[in-house]
Amino acid sequence: MNVRQSTNGASVIVVGGGVTGLSTAWWLARSGIDVMVIEKGIVGWGASGRNGGGATHQHSPLFAEEQQLWPQMEELLGYPTEYRPKRVRLAISEQQMQEAKPGFDRMLRQGFPAEWLDAKQIRDLVPLAAEHVVGGVYFERGGHANPQRTVQAYAWAVQDLGGRILQHTRVMGFERRADSVTAVRTTAGDFSCDQLVVAAGPQTGLLSRLLGTEVPVAPARADMIVTEPLPLMPIGGVDGNSLYGRQTLRGNLAYGGGPHEWLRVSNSSEGQRPSSPLALNIAKRLSEIFPKARHIRIIRSWAGIVENTPDGRPVIDRLPTAINAVFATMSSVGFGLSPASGRAICELVMQGKCSFADLSDFRLSRFGNLSPSWREELGWIPPESEGNHASAA
Amino acid sequence: MKDQGYYRKEHGACSVQKTWSLQLVTLADTRSTYGKSLEIREHAQLLVVGAGPAGLAAALEAVRRGLRVVLVDEHPVDYATMATDVPFHFGQRMSGAVRNRGRMLERIVEADSQFAQAFEAGIDIRLGIAAWGLFTHEAGLRWVRTRIAGLTNGEEVWFLQYDAAILATGRRDVGLAFPGWNLPGVMGVTAADTLLRRYDALEARDLLVVGSGAEATAFAMQAQKSSRLIVALVEAGDTTVDQNGSQRLAAAGVPIFTKSMIASANGGTEGLQSATIVALGNSSEKRSVACDTVVLASGVTSAIELLDVAGAKIVFCPERGGHVPATDAEGRTSVPMLFAAGDCTGITPDKSRDPQVAADEGCRAASAAAAALSINAGRNWSVPTATPSTTSEIALADRIAWANAQLAVADQGTHVCQCEEVSATDLIGVRPPRYLERNQPATCARSLATLAADGPINQDQIKRLTRAGMGVCQGRRCREQIGAILAAVTRTPLTEIPLPTYRAPVRPLPLSAFAATEEAAVLAENWDVWFGIESQFEEPLPKRFR
């Protein structure tokens, strides 16, 4: 690949300064590629910097690579990520124990250890756990990290390797020659490129449309809450009671779960309000698994906007209508997989294929016969507004 | 229960909607907020938050105009909450009397004669009830059909639906870090004034006042009347801000030090014993004054957290004390049917001196709310254009003067953010928190300067990297001073640093308060850990997509 440094372009331009785009840029920069990241706001300002921080994805073909990379990331990047290994999923009912089984089986199938724990074993690892805990599962692999710190680590590491990051820069369009993208038009001017990567989260669909193919995604909002710090438990990565989350290294409990709200596709900036009444429902469920923390106070809540594909699985593929453009969405589960997803996208850009994982499940062609009204057919629609009531009546 | 009629009506309206929406509900994603509802416990035609001069006046005016009013106020705040410096910087100077809740309730009612009128007028007054969130039907929250407030008594949380609301949430202290400012006995002027006049529970005898604005002088005179000794007034600027008030204090024998800063508060676990004052620009000119309390009156700011959570447009207005909601002359905010009045719309010297100014604002907001309710104005709400900020150079310079003064006296152990133990040096170096490896070479090479080279300074970004402002006091003691330090160090105009966002709950609330929450069955039955997309975590890939 052509390695060059120019002020008005880069060999590879990555659109989207979220965790997937930044990891991709970092892997490219590590390989000596001149790379530029274009981000509409601040790096990691979307869901990449505000999520559960989980790194336990035994359903993904990228899981093995994720697990191999996470323990090394802090050293490779040169900045803290707050990564900690291990994961517990606890159950406070027999039904929740059964619900843990598919994940347990997948972990074994991926070739990693998984253990069933009884109530006492759970309480040893998770001292806050309720007396009425039934049991749970323990994963040696998998873990958690601090999303915002990790995203910033990627961004700074990209810069340390000579890559450029343009924040507060919006993509307005693309310039093309035949079926290749030659430049990205932005609010900061035009930037030429040999190859393009788009990992723009909820905006990925709109950007792909500009290049003649639609990567089907639907944006939605999800909520989390944070408590004041507590003494550290032996294991911080604890899920359960239909909540996901972790105890941070500072000691705060950060948890989410429950209903998401589908947003309108046409307006990429909607739904940004950081707090919602769901904080109450998440807190209620958290108090059910950690009754010993009853006196602990909730001090914050937040929401992030994530996108999902029709089957909830990633797309990492070249666009048929723009052969030098790789589009990527991790379909709402991107943070933890980022060390591996960035590497996979980097290899796809540089070599045309991924050497360490089978990405055939992530092909865009699987949505070839998708109905234009797929969101409505799946019921992925915003709650009706008051105005709609009137017009429907 | 007087709200029964309302519930019946609402129920009837819902069943009409259901016949239409049922077909869609069967198709809609059951794991989404579509079709979900909230358990709403009660209803108010007009909700007024805050029973200070503005809130009480608003409630009384609204009743006069025939509205049904619920007035909530978080005072009396319990001792444990005060001990975490919420909602004001109490600095552990509340006396044990605060533990007597019944007495404090009486005391707060006695402190303002308007309460008696308000009770007589039939206003539903709820003391000791805090509003922790305000939510409206909007993108991302479309499932919230109406306008609701999250309320709490500290032991449980619930929702109240309102047709219109007036926020009269008052003001809040602005912190100022210096060595020893974490000692018991260092407190904010709003806390001191509240304990003195509202609670009659200020445990302080000899007070040093930092700052010379109207808040500082008004408090100092009030404290003198209540047999407290004001040992000195310290001002970082070249001259006092409230010159008349300062002259009166000086005439009464209070030493006033301008171009000066408190260099340290000295004492031990028992609390404060003395303070050291230093002349700015001449660090050898120091003097020690005996005092048991330092009152920080170098800045106060509007309590806008509920307004921000509600989505009201916020503007930076230095001459009104900092960030305030964009309002028109009648207190309309940018959120339909949401009004603001009193200190939370901005703090001016005349407001600090005379409660009638806030009361007048409350009356105007109540009149406007009554008019808006009578014509159902929520549907065609015109967003007030922000009062063009006549960016007051004086007010801005004052803030930066204090920021520079605090940087001049700070040492490594001076934590701007007490909760998370973040110093000014940590802020300037954008250093990771103490529990992480802080000395990696790459980390050390990063700083505010490198961050500023990558884009405009953003306090929320710095907050997440350093943790400054992420503690249990919810940034109350450090938020504004961090902004001023960032502005001073990077030479960025304060007006250009975006407001760090506020989040619900705007008061720290124990998990136990949520445990007994009533939850709509439709929400509980469809709760899923993530999106509930079957194929998301299954393998192999579903056939229809192969």
List its salient traits.
heterodimer, A: 393 residues, alpha/beta, FAD/NAD(P)-binding domain, D-Amino Acid Oxidase, Chain A, domain 2, 8-stranded mixed beta sheet, 5-stranded antiparallel beta sheet, 11 helices, globular, disordered N terminus, disordered C terminus, B: 546 residues, 3 domains, 7-stranded mixed beta sheet, 5-stranded parallel beta sheet, 19 helices, 22 strands
Question: What does this molecule look like?
Answer:
The complex is a heterodimer of chains A (about 400) and B (about 550). Chain A is of the alpha/beta class. Helix content of chain A is about 25%, strand content about 30%. Chain A has 2 domains: about 10-50 and about 150-215 and about 310-370, FAD/NAD(P)-binding domain (3-Layer(bba) Sandwich); about 85-145 and about 220-310, D-Amino Acid Oxidase, Chain A, domain 2. Chain A is built from 11 helices and 17 strands. In chain A, the strands form 3 sheets. In chain A, strands 1, 2, 6, 7, 8, 9, 16 and 17 form an 8-stranded mixed beta sheet that branches. In chain A, strands 10, 12, 13, 14 and 15 form a 5-stranded antiparallel beta sheet that branches. In chain A, strand 7 (about 170-175) and strand 8 (about 180-185) form a beta hairpin. Chain B has about 550 residues and is of the alpha/beta class. Chain B starts with a helix and ends in a 21-residue tail after the last helix. In chain B, helix 2 (about 55-65) runs parallel beside helix 5, helix 2 (about 55-65) runs parallel beside helix 11 and helix 12 packs across helix 17 (about 480-490). Chain B has 19 helices and 22 strands. In chain B, strands 1, 2, 3, 4, 5, 6 and 19 form a 7-stranded mixed beta sheet that branches. Chain B has a 5-stranded parallel beta sheet with strand order 8-15-9-10-11. A 3-stranded antiparallel beta sheet of chain B has the order 12-13-14. Chains A and B meet through helix 4, helix 6, strand 10, strand 14 and helix 8 of A and helix 1, helix 14, helix 16, strand 22 and helix 18 of B. Strand 15 (about 295-310) of chain A pairs antiparallel with strand 22 (about 510) of chain B, so a sheet runs across the interface.
